Amino acid sequence: MKKLIFALLLLPCFAQAAVILDLDEKFSGDAPKGSEPWISAELTQQGANSILLTLTSGLVNKEFMSLFSLNLAPLLNPDLLSLSWVSGVKADDWDTGANLFKMDGDGYYDLLLSFDTSNKKGSDRFGAGDTSQYLISGISGLSPLDFLYVDNGGKKGDFYAAAHIQGIGRKADDSGWIGADDYEKTSSVPEPSTIFLLGAALLGLSMTYNRGGVRQAV
What pTM does this model have? Predict the structure, then answer.
């Protein structure tokens, strides 16, 4: 029993594979005025077949993102993907299709999120300090690595993700296109408190086991 507890405590405690795409390259129009990355996209494994997409804004003032796009592995069918809103700013619409979305007349992408562009009362733009989370599923064995493919046919650079930013400049009437030309692989490890609770539970299980009439060596 003690060996089992020790082995379990050495497990990576549900470590989850993740990929981070930082959109910090301007490939058309005007660059946002805030610090890079202007948009960060994190793709985290959620179970065997789902990915949590977390978009985080680094935009400032009246800047907002109207479009966000990703690519999928060529051997996978993007039409099978399903997106479910989780939290934060909710996109007006999402769509998928193989090489269906052309960003600023440049490269083609397979997944598109379209956000609100209205400045009327009650509108929900993706602007400064905002986040948006979507659960992506629909393909067996889907992994964050399946999204590490650059745009097809791009002449202004090879980007894993692209976005359209509006509301740039002093008058908030400029716009630009940004992309992520690099990525970072990482893993999400539970907080120390989670590991402590797991250890405490296993210790309690061990004590219960020992009290159950099992003779201990003296």
Answer: 0.79
Question: How many CA atoms does the CB half-sphere of 119 hold within 13 Å?
Answer: 7
Structure tokens at 17: 């594979």
Q: How many CB atoms lie within 10 A of CB 78?
A: 22
Rounded CA separation 57/41 (Å): 9
Q: Which amino acid is at 127?
A: G
Token digits of residue 120: 């009327």
CA 48 to chain centre: 16
Q: Please provide residue 130's backbone torsions phi and psi, each rounded to the nearest 5 degrees.
A: -85, 160
CA nearest neighbour of 107 among 177, 41, 60 = 177
- Dump pLDDT digits (tens) for 8-55: 444 444 457 899 999 999 999 999 999 999 999 999 999 999 999 999
Alpha-carbon gap, residue 136 to 53, rounded angstroms: 7
Residue 96 pairs in a beta bridge with: 111
As a whole number of angstroms, the distance between CA 28 and CA 176 comes to: 6
Rounded to an integer, what distance in angstroms lies between the CA atom of residue 12 and that of residue 198? 12
Residue type at 137 in one-letter notation: S
* Listed residue (32, 14, 15) closest to 23, CA to CA: 32
Q: Has domain 16-202 been given CATH number 3.30.420?
A: no
